[in-house]
């Protein structure tokens, strides 16, 4: 296999995904700074199946999806597959682009966890910098049944109607989401569309597509580059004169670190991976937002207009002492029975779903390697529903009950013919809990596996400046650095991590006295 050294770059960004696109775009604003982006997937330019938001579901499980399984989940659903996009823009190129600025309580929780400088007041300006077109679901995309869900939820739960969830912090409310899209064409305003497409002609921005980072190169405790394999099998070392920034996401960032010998010493030794730096927190603190599902058959077909078939949602605060919402729902204009079907439920021809979701789950998991072979997928043990007092499971049961109240309320009630799953005969806490956990799915929010923390936190992987502890020339910027998961959908938080990382890098650029 051919081996060669490439030109020197100032920065090498691993992963042209959500955060990586932001970092690369911002760094190359300075024409004297040379940046290489190592991206495992192809370009999304001129690919309507990627760029059209409403086609998102068609991408899951296909050739642009790394498709990670989970380990068996004794108290949950062992069949969950975690989609991770293999394309420029990363998961922002195949997700639903629901856009929530994390709530002030989410950022303040980070600061309390040791992420100094990541409190709400410090993070706010990064939201204002975002280049994405973030707009409420357009009037023409507001389906009649989703409108009636919003009205019924207001009435049944007594929460306010919200128009523009990002206008001000909220504890509860129902309404249409803000999305990062262009309503006139349904085109994504993904990380690649907003941060890379307008700048592809920058001579200092070098995208290495269909190129896989096999390991980080280090010398004397400093990251010097990235060893990569191109589509044709050629192996190369891409060197970084200043820094390597790993933006491979919450699954592939800890995976790459561990394959490079950076991680829990004992685990690495057991797999025969030479230890470069013992960092026990790599892969720990695996977080997600699990949700369950309740499905109704409708009397007939629904109107077809929509932005992406899950355009509205509800936030509830059951515990008045909670700092933010403690129960969330997506409303799907489709019968989402993939998981219930495994338990014997049928899929109605026409239907809708409500999906109770846990904004602040208490269960924690762990990601680890089972082999030193970089081709072997890592093990993802989310530990779903393993928290001691079953807070997570109980939250879903509360959610099913609230969803039923909404379904009984007009103007939604008259659309619905019958509850298909779990079915009206299931009413007890225990049986609802069992159902809710067994059909639980993910909304694909893995995070936390290389968390930010203070210097005395033994499981912190990066410090508040995103540098990897104990090594120099190496930072991480993606969903893996989240110390805790925001109560809302996390993508905008990831964009803001990218913006803050770029800011930290440019502020420390030699010769820049900002
Ligand atoms: C189906 C789906 C729907 C979602 N919906 C929403 C939503 O509506 N709203 C919301 O807030 N969040 C949503 N999310 C979550 C959100 O998209 C993610 O949290 C976020 O995009 C993660 O960004 P990231 O930068 O951490 O990783 P990614 O965007 O996944 O970027 C990682 C990039 O690194 C590349 N890569 C990985 N390993 C390597 C390697 N070794 N070598 C080279 N390249 C590599 C990948 O190809 C990818 O491009 C959804 C996620 C999915 C999958």
TrEMBL record:
<protein>
    <submittedName>
        <fullName>Oxidoreductase</fullName>
    </submittedName>
</protein>
<dbReference type="InterPro" id="IPR007867">
    <property type="entry name" value="GMC_OxRtase_C"/>
</dbReference>
<dbReference type="GO" id="GO:0050660">
    <property type="term" value="F:flavin adenine dinucleotide binding"/>
</dbReference>
<dbReference type="InterPro" id="IPR036188">
    <property type="entry name" value="FAD/NAD-bd_sf"/>
</dbReference>
<dbReference type="InterPro" id="IPR012132">
    <property type="entry name" value="GMC_OxRdtase"/>
</dbReference>
<dbReference type="Pfam" id="PF05199">
    <property type="entry name" value="GMC_oxred_C"/>
</dbReference>
<dbReference type="GO" id="GO:0016614">
    <property type="term" value="F:oxidoreductase activity, acting on CH-OH group of donors"/>
</dbReference>
<dbReference type="InterPro" id="IPR000172">
    <property type="entry name" value="GMC_OxRdtase_N"/>
</dbReference>
<keyword id="KW-0285">Flavoprotein</keyword>
<dbReference type="Pfam" id="PF00732">
    <property type="entry name" value="GMC_oxred_N"/>
</dbReference>
<keyword id="KW-0274">FAD</keyword>
<comment type="similarity">
    <text>Belongs to the GMC oxidoreductase family.</text>
</comment>
<feature type="domain" description="Glucose-methanol-choline oxidoreductase N-terminal">
    <location>
        <begin position="249"/>
        <end position="263"/>
    </location>
</feature>
<feature type="binding site">
    <location>
        <position position="87"/>
    </location>
    <ligand>
        <name>FAD</name>
    </ligand>
</feature>
